[in-house]
Amino acid sequence: MRKSHNLERKGQLSLFLVLGVIIVAGALIFFTLSDKSTSDRDVQSKVVDVPVEFQPISNFIDNCIIHVATEGLQVLGLQGGYIDVEKAGLFFADKSTESELVEHPPGSGTMVPYWYYLESDNSCEANCNFDSKRPSLYRGDGEPSIEGQLDTYVNENLPDCLTNFGPLIDAGFEIKEVGEVDTTTTVTSSDVLFVVNYPIEVIKDGTTSLDEFFVRIPVNMKKMFEQATSLTTIQMDQQYIEKSVLNLLVAFSSVDENMLPPRSGVTFEFGSTTHWFKSQVAGLIKSMLGVYIQGLRVYNTINHNPVTIIGEPRREAMYNQGMLIPASPDAEDFKVFYSYLDWWDIYFNLNCDGELCTPESVGTELLPVLGIQRYTFLYDISFPVLVEVYDPAALNNQGYKFQFMLEANIRNNERMDKDFLQLDALSIRQSSQLCDIDKRNSGNISVKVVEEGANSNVESAQVTFSCGRESCFIGKTPLSGELTEQFPICLGGLVSFLHPDYLKRTVHLSPKLDETYSINMSLFKREDVPYEVKKFKLTKGGGFWNLNPVPLPLDDKEISTLIFTRLGIPEDGDYSTIESYEAGDDHEVQLYPGTYEISIKLQTDEPFTFTKEICTKPGIFSCEEKTPIEVNFNKSMLIGGALLNHTFTFDQLQNDTLTFFVLEADLPGSPIEELGLDDINIFTQMETYSMIYRSALTPR
């Protein structure tokens, strides 16, 4: 069970930004709102006949109700439907996945509750319990409710705003309280109505009594609450966040120490030096979440913008459909944002031997000098996700935000739900009958391996055969590149060709008893290609980020990280590589001919502070107090990027030097009057600007 702790503040500020590819599916509604009809909840304001000479008192009290009620709504929106989380009985723990609340931002004291989370301990193995801290909307559905909390907030804070009617007493009025403040809040179909019963007696050239005051705040809380409930229900039913992360684990894992450990994989070698450290893998997972969770978008919302990618229909479909989350019919009224921020800790475990993560090695009975390295890593991950529902039309177009937390949970590489059952890591079979000599009953199968484009023979190519989950070594090509052997009988088998200097390739083969076959295979040779990275600066002007067409070398304190992912046919082996580039050094990247997705990140070690004034004390009609907000860009801060697909031909890989290009969002070089706080999010839009300036980013 999650344990109770005192509320504490955490302090740290950093920025991790955007983009990724996520697959989401539809939903069923689990939560249900009260079945009260909208008309039952629409309360008409009474017209109170107040003598003209006493109208200043009525206006003074109305304005205070507006101020206090709006303040209460804003606190409630930032805290997922709660004004006082301690009074509501919610507890906060230092670890985000062991708490009912997440502090956002650190040190602010703002506590955002989980609307869906794993209530059991992270290590639970069966009968795990999930819970929700979503409050009721209407007081009639039980407390804590949004209506009930607003009642209490106005009752407790209105007297402070009235300040004992000091300004009115100075104007010659005598005011006597006849009773206490008693508020009834009603969430209607279009706004929030506050009816305040506050009996007072006013004396000035006569006497009058006032007791009821009516105020409407233009926030459509009902629709926002329903939208938040719908998004929570879809997560509960479809677990779309976990789906996206599992896809990312596949995309960013490989038998490569620069990537995540693979969920499954086999290499044929005696012993293996490939290893990972569990703590470093956890750090990579956090960085990945910080970048890609923000790529989730809700269909038909204001900030859902379909993208056209000419000549790339599959990528276009993935971006416009695979990253979408279904929503309620009212989604078009809102903006919806998802984010994971790196100052939130995660629960992470990997089936490693302590801190060191290595494959399991099995020697074959056929050739003792050949080993099989099997990679079977099981990921356990839990992490918080902030969901923000924003209505730009609320509060007379000033905007209103309602945010809450969802927790994503993965165990054993699977989405975790209430039926979860912990599995032990699969053990490797120590021997396989598939590889026994007496099971190789096909006829002679001839294999010829040559280099693609050169037609020269490939010596020492390892030929392996897989049937189901079992694999065995067939042989190694001699100088002639030709090998003739018998294979095991299997329906739907795969022949793989491996060589350290060539891209792995496979071909389907179903050997039959005594039948002969001939296989001709050409392999792509790896090329060591010198390269450099240059940048194009984006500066803000005229409300748009414009490209300076002159490419510049990277500064001394800038580092560029390049991720190359080959987009081959199914018969090609997976290949990806990560390169780190600094100006002034010689760099080479190993590539095979073919089409790649190229992702480039630009970081700097040069600190930069972005300062902008924001309103911290809104008045009734204007801002009463502004405070400068500083966002510090510290070391290793992301300042730009690029994402594109490019096909490298054999001839292009023979060039003396390849030049890659990256976009830099030049905040320091943009006029301060052009910039707003939202421009910090330019770093999350590098994929969009990569499409806009695609031709400039083409490697050459």
Structure description:
By secondary structure, the chain is an alpha+beta fold. It has four domains: 46-220, no CATH class; 222-415, no CATH class; 433-523, Immunoglobulin-like (Sandwich), CATH 2.60.40.1120; 527-697, no CATH class. 17% of the residues lie in helices and 35% in strands. The longest helix has 24 residues, at 55-78. It is elongated. The protein starts with 37 loop residues before the first helix and ends in an 8-residue tail after the last helix. 34% of the residues are buried. Residues 3-47, 363-370 and 421-431 have low confidence and may be disordered.
Quick recap:
By secondary structure, the chain is α+β, with helices and mostly antiparallel strands. The protein contains ten helices and 37 strands.
> Helix count, per DSSP?
10
Cα distance spanning the termini: 57 Å
Shape: elongated
Overall average pLDDT: 82
Structural class: alpha+beta
Poorly predicted regions are 3-47, 363-370, 421-431
| DSSP E strands, number | 37
- Gyration radius, in Å: 32 Å
* Portion of residues within helices: 10-25%
- Report the portion of residues in β strands: 25-35%
